[in-house]
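Q: Start with the shorter request: fold the first protein.
A: Done. Sequence, then structure:
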Amino acid sequence: MTIRRVGMTAAMVVAGLLIAGGCASQGGTGSRSGPGLQPLTPTDIRVYRDNAWRLTRMVENGTEVPLVPKSTVTLIFQGLDRVGGSASINRYFGGYTLGPEGQIIWQGPFGTTRMAGLPELMTQETRFLQLLGKTTRARIDDPRLILDDGGPSVILEFSRPN
């Protein structure tokens, strides 16, 4: 009887390890250990691919910039090397490289469509694209995605897609 219980306990431990390992390999927010910002990974990008992250906060030179009410600025990971979205009026697109610790390197200037709109939206769009190009680090703390310049000078905070 004792041998049988040990066998069952060992089997239960192995099963528990297999289940835990399977959950951890799924990636995304389920595999994160502990609270706080973690470097963005290719697994995160695969989980949220083609979903629009919505800009909720923009900081320039360490000062928060108010967003135009009811405007929409988004970031969409279109793959492991392409990004796009809405910059307020126009659509934008570009390339990037993601490093192992969430470092992000933008591949040249962003391309955009060329529509005109309200002056405050045009100003916000220009500012957003300039700041996006200055970001060098991508971190995630579900439901937030933070792009920054490694300090408090430039911060773009997005909310998780639904």
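Q: Next, the second protein, separately.
A: Sequence, then structure:
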Amino acid sequence: MREHRYRITLEHLATPRQGEPTHAAISFETGNHDDLLTIVDKVRSKNQFDADAAASLALGLKLFTEVMLKNRSHPLFADINQPMRDFIQKLKALPQADAQTPPALAPEVQD
């Protein structure tokens, strides 16, 4: 399969509590049938989340679903295949926001 190739690097910048150690950065290579940077731009353009949250959603979703696609017969994914398709279609159907529209406010996460 022809694919775009990427190197993903994850750096642990901070911990929730002062004095806890951070982890060393990890880096790995992966492929995707889609251009991930274009997908991130598309999700950001919908203005549903701030830019970092939109990038996290797009990248996490695309990395996860590419593993599903390449392992489509694995029983682990059987129960989420159709719900994932439905979710992606719902995300794609969101309209693009104009430049004046502020990002939707995401609910705060409680610990």
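Q: Describe the second briefly.
A: The beta strands are 4-10, 26-32. The first helix runs from residue 36 to 45.
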